[in-house]
Amino acid sequence: MARHHNVNVARNDDTVARRAATTGKRCKARTSTLASTSTSTQHSSSTHKATSTKKAAPTVLTTDKDDNKSESSGGGNKSIGSVSGLIRITDSSCGSPGATKDITATHGPNGNIDWFNCGVDNSGWRPPMVTVDDVVTVPLDEAVKDPNSPFKACEAYISTFTKYANEHNIPPIIIASIAMQESSCNPHTVGGGGEQGLMQITKDKCGGAPGGNCQDIDYNIKTGVAFFASTLKDNGGSLLKTIGNYNGWPDKMTISSATAAQHSDCCLCMNNLDYLQQTMNGWFLNKDPYKAHMGKYFNLDVCPGRG
Questions:
Q1: CB 70 within 8 Å of CB 105
Q2: Where is the composition biased (Low complexity) (predicted)?
Q3: Among 210, 256, 257, 295, which residue's beta carbon has the most beta carbons within 10 A?
């Protein structure tokens, strides 16, 4: 709902400050509900055809956390961790997803950054079709039990994320991931365009807020989830497109258009070209993508005060 803005909240941690500066521009509200259903999934392969339409046991993190372990097919990136299961793919329009068990800066169980960003380096972004049933996620209630979980910042709001995510059949960690990316789970975050709260909802969505308080936890999460769900339905269930849209990625976005604001007076208005990798193989898998320095473009690092 907001593009990369400076938030009007004091930050004491460099990781949090960096995350807040890479939040994203939102799309306008739509009026429908999500049709697809999902819980956390576990898949056995990353081939182009789905091996099953049944949902398997929830994916959980393994105990392998050796940061010096090399990835088997990820271009030599150091492993950040690993999970069981790989994304299930039925759309081969962008080739192989390059999914790997190990999580690295550019790869992971949900695919690799070039696959997520399909087309940005030529004719424009055309995300492959992925639904909420296809991706590998860590259950939010399990994730927060990990003492090193980035979602400790969201701990007070887990039940509310879960309540509204379940109403729309969305894995709760997907919603909490958006909150982490958008506001670092700080309910008092205010975006550069006036976006409010945990989910950084835009002012036009604040009309029904109790007492006019758009930062109200329940209202903010409920409204943000409803917006995400309606956008997901309007996008035919395409999760990558919906996540990108929530962060301001337009159809046919190119590297050139994404970075056009670099030399303007709003450098941070650039689109974060690492956003999908950070979300899909970072937050979804209970990893902080900023501490792990996930991505390959780091295009926002050229902005004043960054790097």
A1: no
A2: 30-57
A3: 295
- The mean pLDDT of the chain is 81
- Exposure b/e, 171-180, CB count within 10 A at least 16 = b: bbbbbbbbbb
Copy the structure tokens of residue 117: 């960003």
CA–CA distance, 281 with 205 (Å, rounded to integer)? 30
Q: Where are the domains of the chain?
A: 14-302
Contact between 103 and 287 under an 8 Å Cβ cutoff? The reply is yes
φ, ψ at 103 (rounded to 5°): -100, 125
Q: How far is CA 114 from CA 61, 81, 86, 117, 288, in A?
A: 24, 20, 17, 5, 20
User: What Å distances lie between residue 88 and 129, 133, 140, 294, CA to CA?
Assistant: 11, 8, 20, 22
- pLDDT at position 306 is 72
- Cα 199 to Cα 127: distance, rounded to the nearest angstrom: 23
Q: Is the pLDDT of residue 146 over 50?
A: yes
Nearest to 285 by CA among 176, 186, 190, 161: 176
> Is residue 184 a contact partner of residue 20, using CB atoms and an 8 Å limit?
yes
- Cα–Cα distance for residue pair 223/195, rounded to 1 Å: 13
Distances (CA, A) of 205 to 30, 98, 199, 237: 11, 38, 11, 23
**What's the pTM?**
0.78
Q: Which pLDDT does position 284 carry in this prediction?
A: 98
CA distance 77 to 91: 26
Residue 57 sits at φ, ψ, to 5 deg, of -65, 150
Range list of β-strands (E), the chain: 81-82, 102-103
pLDDT at 124 (0 to 100)? 98
Question: Does the pLDDT value for residue 91 go beyond 60?
Answer: yes
Beta bridge partner(s), residue 2: 25
Dihedral, CA atoms, 135, 139, 140, 141, nearest 10 degrees? Answer: 170
